[in-house]
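User: Second chain of the day. Same drill as before.
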Amino acid sequence: MKARYIIIAIAAMLLASNALAQESGIEWQDLSKSQQQVLNQFADNWSQLPAERQARLARGADRWANMTPDQRVNAQQRFKKWRELSNERRDLIRKRYETYRQMSPEDQRRVRDNFRRYQQLNSDRRQALRDRYRNMTPDQRRQLRDRIKKTPRTRPSKRD
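Assistant: Same format as last time:
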């Protein structure tokens, strides 16, 4: 029984220290050597960065270190495209991503499945769907979203 309390106490201390680290940020010297190499451009002003950004950058450096060369090239290309977007477009994408994150796991799965099906369509069919959606009134769009949300799809239809 005493061991159980000790384990609970240790877990609580770890959680508290993790929360405190998130609040106060990460010291540069606490980063691994590989993280420091990836984040070298931030070294001089690391302590001025918000704790949340430090944590995001540290996680990103970890992901980068574990990528294959092909994955790194792909990530660089995606980041280049991201930088080329207008601020308005990036804000819209961030807003939509936050909306997605707040969805239930079931709704997230449904969105991913729908997107995969859409990506598998030929370019003419995708363009026709985009045009059709753009020509809808806001009320028609809402009705379509409501209908899609209520209709479970277990397999692609012949129209896809």
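The longest helix spans residues 2-24.

User: Great, on to the next one.
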